[in-house]
What does this fold into?
Amino acid sequence: MQVCRAVSYIQFMGENRIRLAVLSAEITSNPHFFDKGSVAGKLLEFGELFYEKDYGHTT
It folds into this structure.
């Protein structure tokens, strides 16, 4: 569920950038939730790739 919220949040931000730790803290209250190598981090990466592939948007 947090991964879906994060992907939506990133798409909502558009061209604006947000640090991964800030995004993680905003969505989950844990700044390390989406850290590289974590299951959630990998799911977030795949979610972004899926969104880009299906909708043609890049972040």
About this structure: Helices lie at 2-13, 20-28, 39-55. Residues 28 and 54 are 26 Å apart (CA to CA). The chain has a mean pLDDT of 87. The two ends are 20 Å apart (CA to CA).
